Amino acid sequence: MLSCSRAQFREYPAGSLIFGEHDKPKYLYLLLDGKMQISKHLPSGKRNLLFQVKELEVFGEIFVSAAQEYYWYEASAVRPSRVLSLPYHFIYGVCQNACDHHKMVIRNLLDIQAKNNLQMTKKLHIITNTTLKQKLALWLMEISGGQKKAVMDMNREELADYLGVTRPSLSRTMMELQKQGIIRIEGKTVWIDHMEELEKIMEDE
């Protein structure tokens, strides 16, 4: 399939742009090594972090149509990354041989699209809450899976962009929850000592 599709392996240094918001979709990407961010810049210049891409995840899966000729969002490398780029004409079309593995790729891409839609729905659920404390509480409950331990896969600046708030406001809110004894922060690990109090924030705020 790699030969048939004319796929290419590419490397990107940290901070580099893989594609921009107004670029025409030409490839589907698989992250082999590293970390990517998918974001959108607002007219004010502020960045809205939509989600992050981890190793062995697919990104850039826009279904090309006459009405959608550009990405709308951008993808950038958080750290040095290696990706596999597959041309759209191969991914979203079946060759004359109609190979089983080609059909499987298309089915898997539909599954990936469904999972990404769910991910964006969860984010919408988080950021539409009224206060920052509510947003943070719901985010912590989501990434912890209802357990006492939550491991953050974003630094505070990235998390602030994800929640659509400023970093100082985020830090103050996290410190407030820690002073209240609801959470304990140890590096990238957040221990939820009182889950019931975290859930209560959703009702009281």
Number of helices, where a helix is a run of at least 4 consecutive DSSP H or I residues: 7
What structural class do helix, strand and pairing data support? alpha+beta
Cα radius of gyration in angstroms: 20 Å
What share of the residues does DSSP label as strand, in percent?
Answer: 25-35%
Mean pLDDT: 86
Overall body shape: elongated
User: Which parts are unreliable, with pLDDT below 50 for 5 consecutive residues or more?
Assistant: none
The helix-strand sequence is HEEEEEEHHHEHHEEH
Total DSSP E strands: 9
Helix content: 25-40%
- What's the end-to-end separation, in Å? 54 Å
Largest sheet: 6 strands, antiparallel
Helices and strands, with pairings:
Elements: H1 2-5, E1 8-12, E2 17-19, E3 27-41, E4 47-53, E5 58-59, E6 74-87, H2 88-91, H3 100-127, H4 132-144, E7 149-151, H5 156-163, H6 167-179, E8 183-186, E9 189-192, H7 195-204
Structure description:
By secondary structure, the protein is an alpha+beta fold. The strands form two sheets. Strands 1, 2, 3, 4, 5 and 6 form a six-stranded antiparallel β-sheet that branches. It has helices at about 1-5, 90, 100-125, 130-145, 155-165, 165-180, 195-205, and strands spanning about 10, 15-20, 25-40, 45-55, 60, 75-85, 150, 185, 190. It is about 40% helix and about 30% strand.
